[in-house]
Amino acid sequence: MALHVIVGAGPVGSATARLLAARGDEVRLLSRRGGGPAVEGVELVAADATDAATLARHTAGAAALYSCAGPAYHRWSTDWPPLGAALLHAAEASGAVLVTTGNLYAYGAVDGPMTEQLPPRPNSVKGEVRARLWADALAAHEAGRIRTAEVRGSDYLGANALSAFTALVLPKVLAGKRAAAPADLDAPHSWTYVGDVARTLVAVAADEGAWGRPWHAPTPPPMSVRALATRAAELAGAPAARVTTMPRIALRLAGVFNVTAREMPEVEYQLRGPFVLDSSAATARFGIEPTSTDDALRETIESLREVAGESAATR
């Protein structure tokens, strides 16, 4: 029974832990607060993963190390570099293959579907951070110091998934209220299910021939924000979705009071036009078919309703 170490107890980290435990692996899930799914076979550990020595100690003897962490959005520039360095150190010290959960920011604005062959051309600070993390990991891989790969997805759907859609649009749709999004409501947009990211992480870790490159998590055909909201309302039995475009100035004004909103304008391009992911390579390599958008939406809706119910019960 192999040991698999996961850093980050968010949606992807938790889904990966459940997947590995279900197949009988020993799982150690690290997060600052020691949270995560209460599942047999998953050891929950409170640890600071930016401490290289601490992370290396917890990774000793592991077959794979999965980076599923997500620093606060406004702290990417300060928090990602030390975490990235600690992950490289732990991978080198332990010999565990490092598989990182990435995103599409490093590509920048792209005209057409995004493939793994696109060069990094970040047009945002956050994109530059992600591009540097992968460049450092790949350089260490090519130097023979570590073994690594990266799995990239688009905006997430699934339990506890956080995106502009799940934060700004879906709660309003479920409540029968009008929602506003800083988006071209009819532009095609890819939505990746967190469970499919987890399945791809595990498949990549087990396939030595898949290391040394990025992979796009299997993702279904794109849907616009309007179409996704409409379908969510239908699946939830809610009133017909009403969604409007949030003016750019409104987002900037919101940033005066909300730190997350303050960070969004630099990546707003992802919602203001087509943002489409080509994941055919991973499906061909690993045989992973993307979960349907309907099923991903059902899980997202159920998760939001559970959170809303828990919040109401504590008032």
Short descriptors:
Rossmann fold, two-stranded parallel sheet, 2 domains, 43% helix, globular
Question: Any overview of this molecule?
Answer:
- The chain is an alpha/beta fold and 315 residues long.
- It contains twelve helices and eleven strands.
- The strands form three sheets. It has a seven-stranded parallel sheet, sandwiched between helices. The chain has a two-stranded parallel sheet with strand order 7-9.
- Helix 4 links the parallel strand 5 (97-102) and strand 6.
- Helix 1 (11-22) crosses helix 6 (194-206) and helix 5 packs across helix 7 (225-236).
- The longest helix is centred in the C-terminal third of the chain and has 21 residues, at 293-313.
- The chain is globular.
- The protein starts with a strand and ends with a helix.
- The model has no long low-confidence stretch (mean pLDDT 95).
- InterPro entries: Epimerase_deHydtase, NAD(P)-bd_dom_sf.
